[in-house]
Structures are given as C-alpha cells and as structure tokens.
Design goal:
Double Stranded RNA Binding Domain; 6-stranded mixed beta sheet; 42% strand
Amino acid sequence: MRRVLFVVFLALAGCAAPRYDIDFDYDTAENWAALKTYDWQPPTGNAVQDELLVKRIRSTVDAGLQKRGFTQSPNPDFLIAMQLSGKTAYGGSTGVGVSVGIPVGRAGRVSVGGGKSKPIEVKEGQIVLDFVDPKSKSLLWRATGAGSAKPAHSPEEQQERIDQIIGEMLAGFPPKK
C-alpha cells in the first residue's frame, strides 16, 4: 500500500511541476568535428537585466561545453548568442463567494450574494542559444527552452533548475552524423 501511495505521490508531483519544452535544430552540412573553440556575444532580450541569471546560464553552458571538449577563445570557431525573455501570463482565477437566501411568503425568496476572485499568475520564460559562424554570421545550431518558471526560494534551487534545462538543451550538441 505504501508503494502505491508513493507512486501516486510521484505522479502528482510530476503534474504539479512546471512544464517546459526543449527543441533544437542545426545545419546538417556543417563539419562539427572542425569546431573546437567558442566565445560569447552580448545577451539580448527583455530578461537580460537580471545579471545573476545571465551569469548562471553562461557558467552552466561553459561547463557543458567544456565537458564536450570545447574551450573558450578570443578567436572562436563559433559564437554563442543568448536571448532571454520572460512574461507574466494570466490563466483562470481563484475565487471565494458567499450568498444568503431568505424565504419570503409561500413560494418566494430573496437572495443576496457576493464574491471575490483573484487571477492566477504564471511566469513564463524562454532561453534561446544560437551558435553562429563568426565569419559568415550564419546560424549553425539553435536550442530553445520555453515554459513556465518555477519560483525558486534560494540561489541553489535556481542553479539546479538552470542546470537541468541547459543540460537538456545541450544534449543534442554537437550533432551526431
């Protein structure tokens, strides 16, 4: 019985977890074995003013690329352009209401009621990593992560979430031919 409850708990926890989608695409004609070094372009988007977020994402991408044998260089084989965007979406509402009915006469009644609702706010965000040829400026590889943002209570929790998302984004890099 405990095992069944544990499985149900895990299933419910999975339903309550914020969802995100990861997608990537690349130039199939690129010689991926020739790419060894990279560098960063300045980040863009409406969420780049969060310097700590940008630092966390960059350090996670750097670590992921270094594990794959890439090194940062002032004369790179490819550049990384990072775009961060975020917004608040409103979906549904929660409400509380009260009503009172008073009987009047034989078949009549008077009802009085009221209620208050509050919109449900959901933070949504998107990270786009573009790997670009430094000479031709053509796009070589793109990964996109988009979904609802889970509020984190500590910097460590934020870093764990970023590590998870960036890890999935970089799972397809470099492409296998």
